[in-house]
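Weekly sync, protein design subgroup
Attendees: M.S., D.O., the rotation student, P.L. (late)

Item 1: inverse folding check
M.S. brought a backbone from last month's batch and wanted to see whether the design step gives back something sensible before we order anything. D.O. pointed out we never logged the input encoding, so this time it goes straight into the notes. Structure tokens as presented (115 positions):
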């Protein structure tokens, strides 16, 4: 994981005043290709700007607060999965920059939801 990303996560955790329970963090390219539509070079992998993404198990009002706090601390990618069983809900956070944006064609900051 990139040190500046970890420092931002710590600032978010302190402001949230609660643990950030991760369901996913750094992944090898092979595993990411198996579990994600982003393939071998997704935000959870190391591809030059990688190691800058986590999925945090969180739901309800805490999830909304996390999105607000995360933007304040420089997170430029926020993915929202808040349907289905509570234990499967999460918020994806990343702070990938323009290099990754060129790979995906998506703008930054970027907010999306998972089906």
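Designed sequence read out in the meeting:
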């Amino acid at each position: 994981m990139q040190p500046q990303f970890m420092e931002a996560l710590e600032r978010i955790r302190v402001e949230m005043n609660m643990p950030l329970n991760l369901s996913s963090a750094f992944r090898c390219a092979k595993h990411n290709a198996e579990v994600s539509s982003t393939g071998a070079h997704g935000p959870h992998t190391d591809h030059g700007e990688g190691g800058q993404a986590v999925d945090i198990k969180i739901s309800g009002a805490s999830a909304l607060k996390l999105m607000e706090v995360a933007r304040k601390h420089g997170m430029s990618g926020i993915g929202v999965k808040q349907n289905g069983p509570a234990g499967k809900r999460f918020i994806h956070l990343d702070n990938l920059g323009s290099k990754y944006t060129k790979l995906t064609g998506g703008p930054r900051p970027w907010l999306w939801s998972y089906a």
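Discussion: Residues 3-16 form the longest helix (14 residues). The chain has a mean pLDDT of 83.
Action: P.L. to compare against the previous round before Friday.
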